[in-house]
Amino acid sequence: MDNRLKEADVDLALAISFNNIPESIGAARAAAKIGVPFGISLTLDSTSKLNSGPSLAKAITAIDAEPNQSPEFYSINCSHPAEYEPAIEPGEWINRIRGVRPNASKMEKIALCQIGHLEEGDPVELGKRCGDLARRYPHMDIWGGCCGTWNVHLDEIAKNVLGSVSKEL
């Protein structure tokens, strides 16, 4: 990161699809050095861990413990709920996650890359699972989609997330 982001007066820089602790720390330190608000979006694999091995809780805790940097928040992207749900374990760290941009399909990422098209999965199920996550963690306020998601997926996510919020009010 160079000063162009700061000079452009960006509201936020977001590093997405990061899957290891050292690169996350390095990006966060670079953002802190130039004074740009920064978020990190982590990707989990079919073992519900970062591809480099640590759990989501361990990664967030380790990144937050490093000096000279402080991400504003974390999110999860490029992972289906089947991959990230088992990683959501109790602890204060969960309050650092503000959002999710799920994949549409439960398929392994390598298999998805080899089929030659985007797999759409089940938009209704995806929306319900995101709504359930929003109900359990109402502090999460960033929602979207990643690989294979289209307007139908985003409509289902929005419907279920909004439905979970209105039930809380």
Distance between the termini: 41 Å
What is the 3D form?
Answer: globular
CATH topology descriptor: TIM Barrel
The first-level CATH class is given as Alpha Beta
- Counted up, domains total 1
What is the helix/strand order? HEHEHEHEHHEH
For the largest sheet, list the strands in their spatial order: 1-2-3-4-5
Percentage of residues in DSSP E strands: 5-15%
CATH superfamily: Homocysteine-binding-like domain
Q: In DSSP terms, counting alpha (H) and pi (I) runs of 4 or more, how many helices? A: 7
| Radius of gyration (Å) | 16 Å
Global structural class: alpha/beta
Features:
single chain, alpha/beta, TIM Barrel, 7 helices, 41% helix
Descriptive notes:
This protein has helices spanning 4-7, 21-34, 56-65, 81-84, 109-114, 123-136, 151-168; strands at residues 13-18, 38-42, 73-77, 97-101, 142-143. A five-stranded parallel beta sheet has the order 1-2-3-4-5, with helices on one face. The chain is α/β, with parallel strands linked by helices and 169 residues long. The chain has one domain (4-168): Homocysteine-binding-like domain (TIM Barrel, Alpha-Beta Barrel).
